[in-house]
């Protein structure tokens, strides 16, 4: 039985919510059950934001994630807040570009992703979140890269079609951080 | 049909349009603003009217007017805005007008907070406006149920000539889940014609009058008893509920909306600790499924009934009515936008068992 409870957290504007919705859409396309729950509050660009995603091959009981099996921390406050809540044996993905410290836990798997450097090398800062997603897919091995790329083909059409390849490369560069 | 990922609030709006609703009047308020936002884009495309009113009070009175003219109509708001609509809701019940009112609840009282809560249960089920009236109140716990019930809400409103309320907590409004658009909703064309509506006499009939004013006490009394008969028919025919693992359970959790899902997570915790727990979830909170709850609670295996709410305890009154003293009833909850944890809920069950 697969039951993934994920928290994606960071600053508003980092694509935190869209990492969550992309995962959810991909999981749904693979026939899995999903729920996506945003934090909502008096938040603005630069403030903190997070979403809880549950992906399972069984019925999803509660959409609320208190103890994530996987955490994607896009900034330092998110790592500070959620690191202690991750289940032992879980996974923490850290946006190494702006998080200034290492993960303190020694009972979880840790992957560092220099998402801004990857995006910068690819010439488009907006794909930083796709690098994080690529690392997640590679580290957890239940979503397929083809599923996400197919979705990108549906999102980016005609004049924007060239963005499919850019996003795909960003996914792969993120995935490569796991393979190191 | 393939599943689609929908946010609760947007799904409500789309379900309404699919159900033939062609008038939306409302005013933005968190956590339901995606409903008017979606309506502003899609209602005109469906050939309907979207109007952002100057206030919630104006919106409910526009609903009254459109319903009187025979339109399928709705409004939506969140707790403080729903308070403002109470007068209009009472008038709609008095004038026997169909319509759907969505309340995506946030913390109160007063302006409270924008986070999810369930503090409007009394208002929804006991009547926040004046007079002897009732609303059919649906309390969905997942997005599929949101769209299924939203489509049915319009049908029931038309059949019984009364407002139907969708009572959601902010969590259900904000979350996304996959849904399927199942069977098409019953079209207004397949329901009894609204011969009472004020559509213009065209010189062919006496004018229809829509009013909630009865000067003579005898006439008002008779009107109230007629409404009472209608409400009895609703009670007899429209109770909905769901049970999960209640057969042979030691603990029965009772919860609606998001807390029902937390209660199921709590039941999972208890199962690992060797205690069988089930969840009774009312889907209609008016009419309340008292008898069904009583049957579940009266089982020999049941030692305690624990009500879980995102309030300081409102539905627990209905639980006590249903259980009617055959088993001890206790309560666990948080209010003001704080969501109880499954562990907290499980601990409340352990306490009820004297552990």
**Cα-based radius of gyration of chain B, to the nearest Å:** 21 Å
What is the number of E strands of chain B? 14
Radius of gyration of chain A: 15 Å
Assigned CATH superfamily of chain A: Pyruvate-ferredoxin oxidoreductase, PFOR, domain III
* Total domain units of chain B: 2
Strand order of the largest sheet of chain A: 2-3-1-4-5-6
Structural class of chain B: alpha/beta
Please trace the helix and strand order of chain B, writing H or E for each element.
EHEHEHEHHEHEHEHEHEEHEEHEHEH
| Greatest contact between two chains | A-B, 19 and 22 residues
Sheet bearing the most strands of chain A, described?
Answer: 6 strands, mixed
CATH architecture tag of the largest domain in chain B: 3-Layer(aba) Sandwich
Explain the overall architecture.
The complex is a heterodimer of chains A (180) and B (355). Helix content of chain A is 39%, strand content 21%. Chain A has 180 residues and is α/β, with parallel strands linked by helices. Chain A has one domain (3-179): 3-Layer(aba) Sandwich (Pyruvate-ferredoxin Oxidoreductase, domain 3), CATH 3.40.920. Chain A has a six-stranded mixed β-sheet, with helices on both faces. Chain A is globular, with a radius of gyration of 15 Å. By secondary structure, chain B is α/β, with parallel strands linked by helices. Chain B folds into two domains: 4-237, Rossmann fold; 241-352, Rossmann fold, CATH 3.40.50.920. In chain B, helix 3 (56-68) packs parallel to helix 5 (86-94) and helix 10 (258-272) crosses helix 13. Chain B is globular. The mean pLDDT of chain B is 97. The chains are: A alpha/beta (180), B alpha/beta (355). Chain A binds chain B through residues 21, 24-25, 28, 33-38, 40-42, 60-64, 66, and chain B through 3, 5, 30-31, 114-115, 170-171, 174-178, 258, 261-262, 264-265, 268, 339, 341-342.
């Amino acid at each position: 039985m697969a039951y993934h409870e994920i928290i994606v957290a960071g600053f508003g504007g980092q694509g935190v919510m869209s990492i969550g919705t992309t995962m959810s859409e991909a999981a749904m396309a693979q026939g899995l059950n999903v729920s996506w729950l945003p934090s909502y509050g008096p938040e603005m660009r630069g403030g903190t934001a997070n979403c809880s995603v549950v992906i399972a091959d069984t019925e999803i009981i509660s959409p609320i994630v208190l103890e994530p099996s996987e955490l994607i921390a896009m900034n330092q406050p998110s790592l500070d807040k959620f690191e202690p809540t991750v289940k032992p044996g879980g996974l923490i993905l850290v946006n190494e570009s702006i998080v200034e410290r290492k993960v303190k836990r020694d009972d979880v798997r840790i992957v560092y992703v220099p998402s801004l450097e990857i995006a910068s090398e690819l010439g488009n800062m907006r794909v930083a979140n796709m690098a994080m997603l690529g690392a997640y897919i590679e580290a957890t091995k239940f979503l397929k890269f083809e599923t996400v790329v197919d979705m990108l083909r549906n999102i980016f059409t005609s004049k924007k079609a060239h963005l499919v390849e850019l996003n795909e490369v960003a996914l792969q560069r993120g995935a490569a951080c796991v393979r190191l | 049909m393939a599943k689609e990922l929908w946010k609760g609030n947007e799904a409500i709006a789309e379900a309404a349009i699919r159900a033939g609703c062609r008038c939306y009047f409302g005013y933005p308020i968190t956590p339901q603003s995606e409903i008017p936002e979606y309506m502003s884009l899609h209602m005109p495309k469906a050939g309907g009217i979207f109007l952002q009113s100057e206030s919630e009070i104006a919106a409910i009175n526009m609903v009254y007017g459109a319903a009187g003219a025979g339109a399928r109509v709705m409004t939506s708001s969140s707790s403080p805005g729903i308070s403002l609509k109470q007068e209009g809701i009472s008038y709609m019940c008095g004038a026997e007008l169909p319509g759907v009112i969505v309340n995506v609840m946030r913390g109160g009282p007063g302006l409270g907070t924008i986070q999810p809560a369930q503090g409007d249960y009394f208002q929804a089920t006991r009547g926040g406006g004046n007079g002897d009236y009732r609303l059919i109140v649906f309390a969905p716990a997942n997005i599929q149920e949101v769209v299924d019930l939203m489509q049915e809400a319009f049908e029931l409103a038309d059949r019984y000539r009364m407002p139907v309320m969708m009572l959601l907590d902010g969590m259900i409004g904000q979350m996304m889940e996959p849904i399927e658009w199942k069977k098409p909703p019953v079209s207004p064309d397949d329901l009894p014609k609204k011969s009472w509506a004020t559509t213009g006499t065209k010189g062919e009939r006496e004018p229809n009058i829509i009013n909630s004013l009865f000067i003579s006490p005898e006439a008002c009394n008779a009107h109230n008893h007629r409404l009472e008969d209608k409400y009895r028919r609703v009670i007899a025919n429209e109770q909905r509920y769901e049970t999960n693992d209640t057969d042979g359970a030691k603990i029965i959790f009772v919860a609606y909306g998001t807390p029902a899902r937390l209660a199921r997570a709590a039941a999972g915790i208890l199962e690992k600790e060797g205690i069988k727990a089930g969840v009774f979830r009312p889907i209609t909170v008016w009419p309340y499924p008292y008898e069904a709850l009583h049957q579940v609670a009266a089982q020999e295996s049941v030692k305690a009934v624990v009500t879980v709410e995102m309030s300081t305890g409102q539905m627990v009154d209905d639980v006590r009515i249903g259980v009617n003293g055959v088993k001890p009833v206790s309560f666990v909850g948080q209010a003001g936008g704080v969501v109880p944890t499954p562990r907290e809920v499980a601990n409340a069950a352990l306490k009820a068992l004297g552990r």
